[in-house]
Design a protein that fits this description.
The chain is mainly alpha-helical. The protein has a domain of 189 residues. 51% of the residues lie in helices and 9% in strands. It is built from 12 helices and 8 strands. Strands 1-2-8 form a 3-stranded mixed β-sheet. A 3-stranded antiparallel β-sheet has the order 6-3-7. It is globular, with a radius of gyration of 20 Å.
């Protein structure tokens, strides 16, 4: 799961228009998107070039194998994504702003043409992202700005591999390629959480299948991934319960909570993590949570990426643990206004 903390479905639409300030944002995003696209180099040329290190070449060869596996073995859409590479001069490709009401876990949403409402807004500049966050009154809103290493344009452009993606461990890199390829295969308008949960499930499960196929059932890489998956589920159960409890606390005490009470309540979540959950982890993936200060906007990010994936797991089992059948079934939700509820209904009928 650690790899997905740094990824996002970032939409940079070119040559589209919308009301008000959306136009300026889209034009600027399109400019930076085109700048990245113009810098693309074909993987074949880089692999043959003496200017790049063997480590970079090996990673790019792995990307080719992972993409081929995603298409042929998992049933993801064949695209021109990840056939090229772009070297960036920064650790992140973009920065994302998330905003929540200060006294309830409720996302502020931005509207864009084509893709609809999205509960985050991405920028190619950290300063612009921070500037956007500062527009929100801290007495009324919580904000969270984070850097991301990869994004999907959901088929609008041929997405390149970015140098910001290259620091991942090989198995994380494979998961990332499959995760982003899922976005290019299926995107449900105005359903950020469903899109990310689906890509998280397919990315994780797909990467496990890749290493099972390439290294066998005794794969040491697969062991690491299974350990991380175990911790992911443990953390997901914890944070989901905490968010549900916090939502109820906000609702029951609406209009009667001050800033100090809220901060104390949020700090208690981290304390409970340290005492009740952290001792049971088998990896260090979530050690960072012991030291962070959380707010409602950060919790929204956890709600998106760390939600329970049991519905997807159940559908996968119902399809005979066949990822191609799973993907085929999920594609039926493409035009559904509430795909998660449709998924639950489908599972209940079987």
């Amino acid at each position: 799961m650690a790899v997905l903390k740094k990824t996002v479905l970032f939409i940079a639409l070119a040559f589209t228009a919308g009301p008000g300030c959306v136009v300026g944002y889209l034009v600027e995003s399109s400019y930076y998107q085109q700048k990245i696209l113009r810098a693309r180099e074909p993987l074949e040329e880089i692999i043959q070039s003496p200017e790049y290190s063997n480590a970079t070449k090996d990673k790019l060869k792995l990307a080719i194998l992972a993409k081929d596996f995603a298409v042929k073995k998992l049933g993801l859409k064949e695209t021109d994504n990840y056939d090229t590479y772009v070297k960036l001069n920064r650790p992140y490709v973009s920065w994302v702003v998330r905003v929540s009401d200060a006294y309830q876990i409720e996302p502020y949403k931005w509207w864009f043409p084509i893709v609809g409402s999205i509960s985050y807004k991405g920028f190619f500049s950290r300063s612009e992202a921070k500037s956007e966050a500062q527009k929100f009154d801290p007495r009324k809103y919580d904000t969270y700005v984070r850097g991301v290493t990869a994004y999907s344009t959901i088929g609008w452009f041929s997405d390149p591999i970015l140098s910001s993606m290259m620091s991942y461990e090989n198995y994380e890199f494979v998961e990332l390629i499959i995760h982003e390829s899922t976005h290019a295969t299926l995107y449900v308008k105005s359903n950020t959480d469903f899109n990310e949960r689906l890509a998280t499930f397919v990315g994780r499960k797909g990467a496990q299948l890749y290493y099972l196929d390439n290294e066998g059932k005794n794969s040491p890489t697969l062991k690491i991934m299974k350990d991380e998956e175990s911790d992911d589920k443990l953390f997901s159960n914890f944070i989901s319960k905490e968010i549900t409890s916090l939502k109820k606390w906000y609702k029951d005490n609406k209009g009667h909570i001050n800033h100090s009470q809220k901060e104390e309540r949020l700090a208690d979540i981290v304390k409970r993590f340290n005492s009740d959950v952290k001792p049971h982890f088998v990896t260090k993936s979530y050690d960072y949570f012991s030291k962070i200060k959380i707010n409602n906007a950060k919790l929204l990010s956890y709600e998106t990426y760390d939600q329970d994936l049991s519905e997807f797991e159940q559908l996968y089992k119902n399809e005979g643990n066949d990822m191609k059948k799973f993907i085929s079934t999920c594609l039926k939700f493409q035009d559904d206004s509430n795909p998660l509820e449709a998924l639950k209904r489908l599972i209940a009928r079987r």
